[in-house]
Automatic annotation (TrEMBL):
Pathway annotation from the record: Amino-acid biosynthesis; L-methionine biosynthesis via de novo pathway; L-homocysteine from L-cystathionine: step 1/1
Reactions it catalyzes: L,L-cystathionine + H2O = L-homocysteine + pyruvate + NH4(+); an S-substituted L-cysteine + H2O = a thiol + pyruvate + NH4(+)
Species in which this protein is naturally found: Roseibium polysiphoniae
Cofactor(s) needed: pyridoxal 5'-phosphate
Record-listed E.C. numbers: 4.4.1.8
UniProt xrefs under InterPro entries: Cys/Met-Metab_PyrdxlP-dep_enz (IPR000277), Cys_b_lyase_bac (IPR006233), Cys_met_metab_PP (IPR054542), PyrdxlP-dep_Trfase (IPR015424), PyrdxlP-dep_Trfase_major (IPR015421), PyrdxlP-dep_Trfase_small (IPR015422)
SUPFAM superfamilies: PLP-dependent transferases
Keywords: Lyase, Pyridoxal phosphate
Stated family: Belongs to the trans-sulfuration enzymes family.
GO terms of molecular function: lyase activity
Designated name of the protein: Cystathionine beta-lyase
Length: 393
C-alpha cells in the first residue's frame, strides 16, 4: 500500500490494486522486480552472523516473494502468509504445521480428493489418526472430539458436491478444546470469503486457480492467524520451500485482476445455470449462490460472491454411455483438471472412494463445470448441442 495508508482504509478492489507494491523502493517502477537469486551477499561478517539485513538467502525470500506474501497477508487479514508449490502442497504444509505424532484430525468428508489421499496415505505414517465428518454437523462436530483432537480441516463449499459448512460454528467448537481450524478456501478466493474472520487459523488457497487465473502456474498459499503463524513459519523454513520468481510474478499479475475476473465468472455462471434449469436432462444444480441451494443461507452470511465452479446431476436413469457422450461432444469446454483460468472446463463427477461419512447415490451421473470468460451464449450453445447429442437416441 502507499505510505501512511492501511488496508482497512480501502475497499477490496483498491487493496488488490495497490497491496504488495512499493514503487518508491524500486526507482518508481509500478511492479516489484522479478528477483532470480540464490546467493545474497553481506557487507561484513557481523551482518552475516546476525542476519542483520532483509534478505539472507534466496530460499528464505526475495523482494518478489515478499511482495506476494505481503499482498495476500493484507487481503486475508492474516498474521503472515507462506507460499507453496501447489494447492496440495499448501494443504500438506498447513496440516503438518499443526499436527504431531499421536494427534487426531477431523477432515470434512467433502474435501478435495487429493487432500483425502494425503490424509490417508501420509498422516498415518506419523501416527496421526484421521477421521472424516459430515459437513452438515456444523457445531455438533464437537461430538467427534477426542482427548487428542488437534485440528479440524474444513472446505466450503465441498469439492464436487458443493455442500456448505457453518465455519464459525465449527471454529467455535474447535476453540473450546484449543484445536486448530484449517479451511480450503480456493472456491471463493480471499476476495469472496475471509476465513480468518470466521474463526479459521489457516486459510489455504490453491493459487493455481483464481489467484493466478491463467492456467499456467502451480502455486499454493497459506495465510495464518497469530496463533498458527509461528509454527507455519518454522515448518516452511525447515522444509526449504521456495517458489520460482517467475511463477510468483505471474501470481502477482493475476492478483491485480482477481476482482474483475471473478465478477465475470459469477455473472457468466449464473447465466449458464439459468439456462440449465430449463433442460429436462438436468435433475439438480449444486451452486451455493442459488436461493434453492441447501447451503444458500450460509453462503449469503459468510461469502460476498461466488466463483465459476459448480456441478449438476443428470436426470435419473442416465447411463455411463450418455454421460460420456455429453463430455465427448463438448467443443468449447475442455476436458481437464484444475479450474480458475479464463477458459471453461468440464469433468465427470466420480465420488467412489471419496466419501465415507456421508451417503451418495453410486449410480448418479453428474458433471462439474467451470465457467470461463467466454461469451455465455456461446457456452450455452455448446452445452445444448452436447446434451442433444447425448440424449437424442
Amino acid at each position: 500500500m502507499t505510505k501512511n495508508s492501511t488496508p482497512a482504509a480501502f475497499k477490496a478492489d483498491t487493496v488488490l490494486t495497490h497491496t504488495g507494491r512499493k514503487p518508491r523502493e524500486f526507482h518508481g517502477f509500478v511492479n516489484p522486480p522479478v528477483v532470480h537469486a540464490s546467493t545474497v551477499l553481506f557487507p561484513n561478517t557481523a551482518t552475516m552472523e546476525t542476519g542483520g539485513q532483509p534478505y539472507v538467502y534466496g530460499r528464505r525470500g526475495t523482494p518478489t516473494t515478499e511482495a506476494l506474501e505481503t499482498a495476500l497477508t493484507e487481503i486475508e487479514g492474516a498474521a503472515g502468509t507462506k507460499l507453496a508449490t501447489s494447492g496440495l502442497n499448501a494443504i500438506a504444509l498447513a496440516c503438518l504445521s499443526c499436527l504431531k505424532s499421536g494427534d487426531h484430525v477431523l477432515i470434512a468428508d467433502t474435501s478435495y480428493g487429493p487432500t483425502r489421499h494425503f490424509a490417508d496415505t501420509v498422516l498415518p505414517k506419523y501416527n496421526i489418526a484421521v477421521e472424516y465428518y459430515d459437513p452438515a454437523l456444523a457445531g455438533d462436530v464437537k461430538t467427534l472430539f477426542k482427548a487428542n483432537t488437534a485440528a479440524v480441516f474444513t472446505e466450503a463449499p465441498g469439492s464436487l458436491t458443493f455442500e456448505m459448512q457453518d465455519i464459525p460454528a465449527i471454529a467455535q467448537a474447535a476453540r473450546s478444546i484449543g484445536a486448530t481450524v484449517l479451511m480450503d478456501n480456493t472456491w471463493a478466493s480471499p476476495l469472496y470469503c475471509k476465513p480468518l474472520d470466521l474463526g479459521v487459523d489457516l486459510s489455504i488457497q490453491a493459487g493455481t486457480k483464481y489467484i493466478v487465473g491463467h492456467s499456467d502456474v502451480m502455486l499454493g498459499t497459506i495465510s495464518a492467524s497469530e496463533k498458527a503463524w509461528p509454527a507455519l513459519d518454522a515448518l516452511h523454513g525447515a522444509m526449504g520451500i521456495h517458489i520460482a520468481p517467475d511463477d510468483v510474478y505471474l501470481a502477482l499479475r493475476g492478483l491485480r485482476t482477481l476482482s474483475v475476473r471473478l465478477e465475470r465468472h459469477m455473472k457468466n455462471t449464473l447465466e449458464v445455470i439459468d439456462w440449465l434449469k430449463t433442460r429436462e436432462e438436468v435433475a439438480a444444480i449444486h451452486y451455493p449462490a442459488l436461493e434453492t441451494d441447501p447451503g444458500h443461507e450460509l453462503w449469503k452470511r459468510d461469502f460476498s460472491g461466488a466463483s465459476g465452479l459448480f456441478a449438476f446431476d443428470f436426470k435419473a436413469g442416465t447411463s455411463t454411455t450418455q454421460s460420456n457422450a455429453f463430455f465427448d461432444s463438448l467443443t468449447l469446454f475442455g476436458l481437464g483438471y484444475s479450474w480458475g483460468g479464463f477458459e471453461s472446463l468440464a469433468i465427470p463427477v466420480k465420488l467412489k472412494g471419496n466419501r465415507s461419512a456421508t451417503t451418495y447415490d453410486v449410480d448418479l451421473k453428474s458433471a462439474r463445470l467451470h465457467i470461463g470468460l467466454e461469451d455465455p451464449q456461446d457456452l450455452i450453445k455448446d452445452l445444448a448441442q452436447a446434451l442433444d447429442a447425448a440424449f437424442s437416441s
